[in-house]
C-alpha cells in the first residue's frame, strides 16, 4: 500500500483528464490512498475540486484559463440576475440540510476510494465506492465541452490521440518555496476555478504567471464579481475527519462530505437556467468601447480615413500581457474585422469577441473560465469556416509556424525578451465570400456558381462616367479586365452586374460619383464591400500594377506577358511598365484586386494560375460610326440588366435557366449560364447547335449513356485550379506562412489530396471513352467536340499523360499512406537519390565481405539509425581485431560476440545518412512536383473540360426538348430586308404546357407591320405573351429547340423590355421615372434588328401626359421598324394609329356575358388567352375589381362615374365631328355624318 504524507495526493494513472478524447472539462476522479498512522490519526480528506487546485498550482500555471491576465471573473448585472426558482430552493434546502431526497439523489463529484482492511472493504464495498461507469456518465451529463462536429472517420482517430506540446509557453517556470507553501495553504481555501480543457494543458499561448498572483485571483472568486455563468455556491467548508469515534462514523462523515461536494457541483455547473447576459472582460475593456474605439493609426470612426479593419490597442496594455496573450492581441489589432481561428495545438481557438461569434453562429458553448473562449478541432476547419463565410464573416486562419524546439533555437540566436518566448504564429489566409481558395483543408463544395470579387474605378466625365473594372473568381483563377464609357443611367455597369453578380466589391474611399452610389445601395446592397485607401503609399495605380507584375511574375522586357495585359501596355515603352491611355482605369482596378488578395495572403496562390480575359460590354461596338450601327451585326445578343430581370432569364427558381438546366456537370452549368446571358448572333453557330441537339434527340440511348457518363464527374475546373495550387512553388519561394505552418492532420490532408488527384485522373480516363461513344455522329459540332485531333476534332488525346501518371507512383500505397511512392523514371531527383543510396549500400556489402575474410567467420551489421553498421564479430574470432577497430559493445550468453566500428563504417554511415536526407527532402517535395507536372499540361486538361462542357449543355437542351409535348427547330433567316418573326402555336418555356394556351404571332412580315399595338382586358395575358416571345427568341439564338409548332425569324441583336411597374425608393426614383428611364434606354440604343417589349407605358402620371408620351414612343418605334409589342390600356392610341400602315392592331381575345347590363357586377369576362387581330374596345377593369373582391357598391358607383366621364368625352368628339361635317362640302361629308351617328348611339348607351 502506498502511503502519502499529509496533504499528498496522486492522480490515478488509469484515468486521464478526458477519457473520451473530448476536449471538454471533465472532473478527474482522484484516488486517495491513506493508512492510519500511529495514534490513530487519519489524513485530512480533500475534495476532488481542491485536488485540482493543488495539481494546477504546484509547479505550473492554473489550467482554468488561457488569458489569465484577467484577475476577476465576468461581472453580472445583479438587477438582471433571475436564477431558476427550483435551483434557489434546492440551494436553500441543501444549506439547511432539510431536503433529504434531493441530497440523496445528488451524486458525488468524484469517486473516493478508501484503502481499508480487506474484511471491512468487502463488507462495505457498496457503500463506499461509486461505480465508475455510472460516475462517468453523470460527469459527462453536466460538463461543458467543446463542440466537435465529426466529418469523417479521421476525427475518431483524432479524438483518441494525445496532443503533442507545441507551445513551450511558460515552460521555464518553476515555483519557489513561497509559492509552494502558498499552494499548499490553498487546500482548505475558497472555491476552486474549474480546470481548463486538455488542449490548454498541453498547448497554451499564455505563459504561466506567478502563483502569488493566481492565489490572489483565486481568493477574489468569492466576491461580487462572481461569473454570471455560475450559480451561487454553497457555504464553503473544510472537510476534516473527526479524530475520535469509530471507523464507520468517520467513513459516514467522508461520504457526507463527498455528497456535499456533489451538491455544490450540481449547482455550480448548471448554467442553462440563468437568463441574464454574461458580461465578459472584453466587454469592459476601455479601448473597445464605442465612444473610445480607434483604428491602429488612432483615428476615430468619424474620421474620413478611418480603417475599420484595424484596432488601436494601447502599448501599455500590450506590455502588461503575457507573451501568448500579447501575440493574439497584436494579430487582432491588425485584423479587427476578422474572426481569428487561433491555432493552439490541434485546436482552433476563438477568444473574446470571436468566441461570441462562435457561440452565436456556430452553436459552440463557452469554455469554463473567466474570459470568453470557445473552439473546435483542426479537422473541422472547413465546416466551421464555411458557415461563417456564408454568413458574411471574414475568417483569418492563424497557424503555428514553429515547434517548441524551433522556438528554443530561435531564442538562442538572439537576445530574447519575455515576449519572444512563445511559439510563432502567423496568419496564413484570410477568407471571405470573394476570396475562397480550395486549399488542403477545404473541400470543393456542391455550389457551381462563381464567387466574383469586383473592383470598380470610376472617372467622372461630366454627366456620364468612365469605368475601369476587374472581376475575378479566385477559385479558378479567371481575371476579367476592362474599361468602358457609360451613360448617366450606368446601363453598362448594371448589365455587367446582372451577368456577373459579385459577392465582394472593392472601391476606393470617396471616389465614386453620385450616379454610382445608388447602385451600391440597391443592386449591390446585399454584398460585402471593402473600401481601399484613396491616398498614401497603398494607393493603387496602373503603373504600380505593371511594375508589380513585372517584378514578381513576368520579367520586364521578355515576351512572356499574357496577350490581354500586353495589349494594355504602351507601345512606346518596350519594358512594358507604362500603361496605354485607354486602359489606365482597367489596370488600376486590376491593381486593387491584387492588393486585396495580397492582403488576404492569397497572391502567391492565385496570381500564378491567373488567366486574363478582356471584358467588353456586350453592346459596345468599337470604331464603328454611329450612322452605321444599324448595318453592323453583333456576335452576341445584348441582354441588359433590365431585360434579364423582367424576363426572369437567370436565377435559381422559375427562370429560363432553371428550366433548361439539365446539365450533369458543374462546369456545364456555368457554360449554360454564359450562353443565356449572351446568345449567339452567328447563324452558322446556331444551326450547328440545332443539328447537334437534333441528333442527340434521335439517338436517345446515346444521350442517356452520355448523361450517365457525365453525372459522376467532379468540378474539373475548380479541381484543376486546386491541383495547380498544390503544385505551386511560389508559396515557398515567396516565403508564404503556409510553407511554415504546422498542421497536425497533415497526413490526413495528404491522403485527401492524393485521393482527389487520383479521382481526377480516373475522371479523365472516363472521358477518353467519349470519342468512341460519339464516333458515328454526323453532326459537325459533335464531331468537332468529341473526336481526337487526329480525326479532325478538337478533343485532346490525353492517353500519354494519363499513362504517365498511372505508372508514376503506387496508387494503392498513396491512398493508404498519403505519401507518393514514385516508380522508377517518374522523378529524376528521386531516382538520383535512390541510386546514391544503392551505391552506398553496395559498398557496405563489399566492405562486409572484406571483414568476413579478415576475421575468417561470418560477420553481420548491427544497430539502427545513428548506430548502424556496427560489425558484430563472434567472441572466438574477436582476437583478430586490431587498433583500427573501436569496441562499441559486447554480447553475453550462448553466442557471445563483440561489436566494433571502424573509420570506414563511420564514413559509410555518414554518407548513407546524407543520401537518405536528400531522398527525404525529395520525398517531401515530390507530391508538390507531381502536381506541378500535372499542371504543366493545363492547356490540354482545360481543352478537354471545355469540350465536355459544350457537349453537356447540348445534351441538356436535347433532354429539355425531349420532355416537351410540342417541339420544333426554328428556322433562322439572314434577313437583308425587314426583320421579322413568324411564330405558330408557341408555349411559354417556363410554364407547364398542359395548362398553357399556345399563341402565334406575326411581326414584320409582308402581311403584318413590325409593330403590334396590343390591347385587351386586364389579366388577359398581354404581359405573358410578351415574355413568351422574348424567352423563345433567346432560346432560338442559343441553338435550342423551342416549344412551338413552327418558328421563322431573323436574328435579334438586342432585346429591350419595359414590363411591370415598380419604383426604386433607395435610388430616389418614382415608378414613372423608372418607366421613362427604361424607355429612354430603348430609344437611344434600339436598332432595326432589336426586339422591343413595352408594357403599358405612361402609368404614374396624368392620363393626357401618359397618352401623349406613349403615342410619341409608338411613333418613334414605328419609324425605326424594329419588331415591337406595345401593350396599352390607352384606347385613344387606337384612334391615333388605327389607319397607320406601320402599325398592326392586336388584342387578347375574351368572351363577355351581360356586357350591356347596367349592373357591372353581373358582367362576366372569360379570358381566351389568344392573340387575335384587331383592337379590343374595352379593358374590362370592373371585372378585375370584382375578381379582386372589391365591395359591389364601390364597383357600381365607379361604373356610374365611368359612364359620366365617357359621355363627356363622346360629347367633345361629337361636337368636333359635327363642326367638321358642316365645314366639309366634299364627298367626305357623308363619312363624317356616319361617324356622328355612331357617336350618338354610344352617347345614348352612356346614360345609366
From TrEMBL:
PROSITE patterns: DNA_MISMATCH_REPAIR_2. One of its GO terms (biological process) is mismatch repair. Residues 1-23, 92-234 are annotated as: Disordered. Residues 1090-1106 form the DNA mismatch repair proteins mutS family domain. InterPro entries: DNA_mismatch_repair_MutS-lik_N, DNA_mismatch_repair_MutS/MSH, DNA_mismatch_repair_MutS_C, DNA_mismatch_repair_MutS_clamp, DNA_mismatch_repair_MutS_core, DNA_mismatch_repair_MutS_N, DNA_mismatch_repair_MutS_sf, DNA_mmatch_repair_MutS_con_dom. Belongs to the DNA mismatch repair MutS family. It comes from Drosophila busckii. Component of the post-replicative DNA mismatch repair system (MMR). This is DNA mismatch repair protein. The keyword Nucleotidyltransferase does not apply. The keyword Glycosyltransferase does not apply. Residues 223-234 have a biased composition (Basic and acidic residues). It comes from the Eukaryota. Coiled coil: none annotated. Residues 152-174, 182-203 have a biased composition (Acidic residues). GO terms for molecular function: ATP binding; ATP-dependent DNA damage sensor activity; mismatched DNA binding. Keywords: ATP-binding, DNA damage, DNA repair, DNA-binding, Nucleotide-binding. One of its GO terms (cellular component) is MutSalpha complex.
Amino acid at each position: 500500500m502506498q502511503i502519502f504524507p499529509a496533504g499528498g495526493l496522486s492522480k490515478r494513472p488509469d484515468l486521464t483528464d478526458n477519457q473520451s478524447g473530448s476536449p471538454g472539462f471533465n472532473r478527474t476522479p482522484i484516488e486517495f490512498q491513506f493508512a492510519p498512522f500511529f495514534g490513530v490519526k487519519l489524513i485530512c480528506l480533500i475534495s476532488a475540486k481542491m485536488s485540482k487546485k493543488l495539481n494546477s498550482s504546484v509547479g505550473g500555471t492554473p489550467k482554468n484559463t488561457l488569458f489569465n491576465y484577467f484577475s476577476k471573473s465576468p461581472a453580472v448585472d445583479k438587477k438582471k440576475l433571475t436564477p431558476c426558482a427550483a435551483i434557489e430552493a434546492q440551494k436553500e434546502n441543501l444549506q439547511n440540510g432539510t431536503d433529504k431526497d434531493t441530497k440523496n439523489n445528488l451524486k458525488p463529484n468524484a469517486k473516493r476510494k478508501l484503502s481499508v482492511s480487506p474484511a471491512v472493504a468487502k463488507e462495505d464495498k457498496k457503500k463506499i465506492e461509486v461505480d465508475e461507469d455510472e460516475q462517468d456518465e453523470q460527469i459527462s451529463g453536466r460538463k461543458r465541452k467543446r463542440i466537435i462536429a465529426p466529418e469523417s472517420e479521421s476525427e475518431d482517430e483524432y479524438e483518441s490521440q494525445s496532443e503533442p506540446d507545441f507551445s513551450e509557453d511558460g515552460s521555464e517556470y518553476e515555483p519557489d518555496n513561497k509559492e509552494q507553501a502558498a499552494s499548499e495553504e490553498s487546500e482548505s481555501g475558497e472555491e476552486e476555478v474549474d480546470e481548463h480543457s486538455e488542449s490548454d494543458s498541453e498547448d497554451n499561448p499564455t505563459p504561466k504567471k506567478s502563483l502569488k498572483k493566481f492565489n490572489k485571483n483565486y481568493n477574489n472568486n468569492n466576491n461580487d464579481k462572481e461569473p454570471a455563468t455560475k450559480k451561487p455556491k454553497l457555504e464553503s467548508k473544510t472537510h476534516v475527519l473527526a479524530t475520535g469515534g469509530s471507523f464507520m462514523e468517520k467513513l459516514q462523515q467522508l461520504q457526507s462530505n463527498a455528497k456535499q461536494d456533489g451538491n455544490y457541483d450540481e449547482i455550480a455547473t448548471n448554467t442553462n437556467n440563468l437568463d441574464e447576459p454574461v458580461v465578459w472582460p472584453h466587454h469592459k475593456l476601455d479601448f473597445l468601447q464605442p465612444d473610445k474605439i480607434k483604428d491602429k493609426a488612432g483615428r476615430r470612426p468619424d474620421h474620413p480615413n478611418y480603417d475599420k479593419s484595424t484596432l488601436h490597442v494601447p502599448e501599455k496594455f500590450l506590455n502588461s500581457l503575457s507573451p501568448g496573450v500579447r501575440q493574439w492581441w497584436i494579430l487582432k489589432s491588425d485584423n479587427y474585422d476578422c474572426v481569428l481561428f487561433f491555432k493552439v495545438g490541434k485546436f482552433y481557438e476563438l477568444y473574446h469577441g470571436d468566441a461570441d461569434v462562435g457561440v452565436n453562429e456556430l452553436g459552440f458553448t463557452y469554455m469554463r473560465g473567466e474570459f470568453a473562449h470557445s473552439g473546435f478541432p483542426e479537422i473541422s476547419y472547413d465546416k466551421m469556416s464555411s458557415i461563417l463565410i456564408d454568413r458574411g464573416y471574414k475568417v483569418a486562419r492563424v497557424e503555428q509556424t514553429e515547434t517548441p524546439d524551433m522556438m528554443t533555437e530561435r531564442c538562442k540566436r538572439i537576445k530574447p525578451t519575455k515576449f519572444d518566448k512563445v511559439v510563432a504564429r502567423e496568419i496564413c489566409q484570410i477568407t471571405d465570400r470573394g476570396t475562397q481558395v480550395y486549399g488542403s483543408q477545404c473541400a470543393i463544395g456542391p455550389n457551381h456558381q462563381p464567387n466574383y470579387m469586383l473592383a470598380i474605378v470610376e472617372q467622372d466625365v461630366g454627366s456620364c462616367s468612365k469605368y475601369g473594372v476587374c472581376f475575378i473568381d479566385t477559385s479558378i483563377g479567371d481575371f476579367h479586365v476592362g474599361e468602358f464609357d457609360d451613360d448617366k443611367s450606368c446601363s453598362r455597369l448594371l448589365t455587367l452586374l446582372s451577368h456577373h453578380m459579385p459577392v465582394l466589391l472593392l472601391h476606393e474611399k470617396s471616389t465614386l460619383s453620385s450616379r454610382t452610389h445608388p447602385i451600391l445601395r440597391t443592386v449591390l446592397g446585399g454584398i460585402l464591400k471593402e473600401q481601399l485607401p484613396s491616398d498614401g503609399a497603398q494607393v493603387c495605380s496602373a503603373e504600380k500594377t505593371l511594375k508589380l507584375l513585372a517584378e514578381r511574375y513576368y520579367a520586364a522586357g521578355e515576351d512572356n506577358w499574357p496577350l490581354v495585359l500586353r495589349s494594355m501596355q504602351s507601345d512606346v515603352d518596350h519594358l512594358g511598365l507604362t500603361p496605354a491611355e485607354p486602359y489606365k482605369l482597367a489596370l488600376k482596378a486590376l491593381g486593387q484586386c491584387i492588393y486585396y488578395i495580397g492582403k488576404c495572403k492569397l497572391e502567391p496562390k492565385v496570381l500564378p494560375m491567373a488567366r486574363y480575359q478582356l471584358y467588353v460590354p456586350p453592346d459596345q461596338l468599337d470604331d464603328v460610326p454611329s450612322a452605321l450601327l444599324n448595318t453592323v451585326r453583333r456576335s452576341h445578343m445584348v441582354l441588359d440588366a433590365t431585360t434579364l430581370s423582367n424576363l426572369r432569364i437567370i436565377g435559381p427558381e422559375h427562370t429560363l435557366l432553371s428550366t433548361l438546366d439539365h446539365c450533369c456537370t458543374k462546369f456545364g452549368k456555368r457554360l449554360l449560364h454564359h450562353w443565356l446571358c449572351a446568345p449567339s448572333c452567328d447563324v452558322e453557330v446556331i444551326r450547328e447547335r440545332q443539328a447537334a441537339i437534333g441528333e442527340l434527340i434521335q439517338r436517345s440511348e446515346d444521350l442517356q449513356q452520355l448523361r450517365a457518363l457525365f453525372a459522376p464527374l467532379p468540378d474539373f475546373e475548380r479541381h484543376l485550379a486546386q491541383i495547380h495550387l498544390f503544385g505551386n512553388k511560389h508559396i515557398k519561394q515567396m516565403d508564404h506562412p503556409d510553407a511554415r505552418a504546422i498542421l497536425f492532420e497533415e497526413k490526413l490532408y495528404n491522403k485527401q489530396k492524393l485521393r482527389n488527384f487520383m479521382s481526377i485522373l480516373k475522371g479523365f480516363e472516363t472521358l477518353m471513352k467519349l470519342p468512341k461513344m460519339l464516333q458515328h455522329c454526323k453532326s459537325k459540332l459533335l464531331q468537332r467536340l468529341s473526336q481526337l485531333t487526329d480525326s479532325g476534332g478538337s478533343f485532346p488525346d490525353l492517353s500519354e499523360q494519363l499513362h504517365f501518371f498511372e505508372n508514376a507512383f503506387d496508387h494503392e500505397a498513396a491512398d493508404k499512406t498519403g505519401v507518393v511512392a514514385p516508380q522508377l523514371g517518374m522523378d529524376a531527383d528521386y531516382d538520383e537519390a535512390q541510386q546514391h543510396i544503392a551505391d552506398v549500400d553496395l559498398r557496405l556489402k563489399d566492405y562486409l565481405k572484406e571483414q568476413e575474410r579478415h576475421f575468417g567467420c561470418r560477420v553481420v551489421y548491427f544497430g539502427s539509425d545513428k548506430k548502424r553498421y556496427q560489425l558484430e564479430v563472434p567472441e572466438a574470432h574477436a582476437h583478430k581485431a586490431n587498433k583500427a577497430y573501436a569496441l562499441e559493445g559486447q554480447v553475453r550468453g550462448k553466442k557471445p560476440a563483440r561489436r566494433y566500428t571502424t573509420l570506414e563504417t563511420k564514413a559509410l554511415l555518414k554518407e548513407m545518412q546524407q543520401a537518405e536526407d536528400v531522398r527525404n527532402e525529395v520525398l517531401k517535395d515530390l507530391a508538390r512536383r507531381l502536381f506541378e507536372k500535372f499542371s504543366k499540361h493545363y492547356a490540354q486538361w482545360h481543352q478537354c473540360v471545355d469540350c465536355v462542357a459544350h457537349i453537356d449543355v447540348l445534351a441538356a437542351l436535347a433532354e429539355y426538348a425531349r420532355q416537351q409535348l410540342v417541339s420544333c427547330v426554328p428556322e433562322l433567316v439572314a434577313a437583308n430586308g425587314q426583320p421579322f418573326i413568324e411564330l405558330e402555336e408557341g408555349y411559354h418555356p417556363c410554364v407547364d404546357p398542359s395548362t398553357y394556351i399556345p399563341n402565334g404571332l406575326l411581326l414584320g412580315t409582308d402581311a403584318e407591320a413590325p409593330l403590334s399595338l396590343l390591347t385587351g382586358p386586364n389579366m388577359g395575358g398581354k404581359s405573358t405573351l410578351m415574355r413568351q416571345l422574348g424567352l423563345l427568341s433567346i432560346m432560338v439564338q442559343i441553338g435550342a429547340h423551342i416549344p412551338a409548332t413552327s418558328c421563322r425569324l431573323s436574328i435579334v441583336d438586342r432585346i429591350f423590355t419595359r414590363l411591370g411597374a415598380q419604383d426604386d425608393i433607395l435610388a430616389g426614383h418614382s415608378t414613372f421615372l423608372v418607366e421613362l428611364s427604361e424607355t429612354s434606354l430603348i430609344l437611344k440604343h434600339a436598332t432595326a434588328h432589336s426586339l422591343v417589349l413595352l408594357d403599358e407605358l405612361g402609368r404614374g402620371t396624368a392620363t393626357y401626359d401618359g397618352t401623349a408620351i406613349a403615342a410619341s414612343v409608338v411613333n418613334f418605334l414605328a419609324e425605326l421598324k424594329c419588331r415591337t409589342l406595345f401593350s396599352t390600356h390607352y384606347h385613344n392610341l387606337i384612334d391615333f394609329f388605327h389607319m397607320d400602315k406601320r402599325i398592326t392592331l392586336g388584342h387578347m381575345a375574351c368572351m363577355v356575358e351581360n356586357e350591356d347590363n347596367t349592373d357591372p357586377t353581373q358582367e362576366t369576362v372569360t379570358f381566351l388567352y389568344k392573340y387575335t387581330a384587331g383592337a379590343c374596345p374595352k379593358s374590362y377593369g370592373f371585372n378585375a375589381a370584382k375578381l379582386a373582391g372589391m365591395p359591389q357598391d364601390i364597383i357600381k358607383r365607379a361604373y356610374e362615374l365611368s359612364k359620366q366621364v365617357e359621355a363627356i368625352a363622346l360629347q367633345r368628339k361629337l361636337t368636333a365631328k359635327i363642326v367638321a361635317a358642316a365645314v366639309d362640302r366634299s364627298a367626305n361629308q357623308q363619312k363624317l355624318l356616319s361617324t356622328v351617328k355612331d357617336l350618338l348611339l354610344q352617347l345614348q348607351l352612356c346614360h345609366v
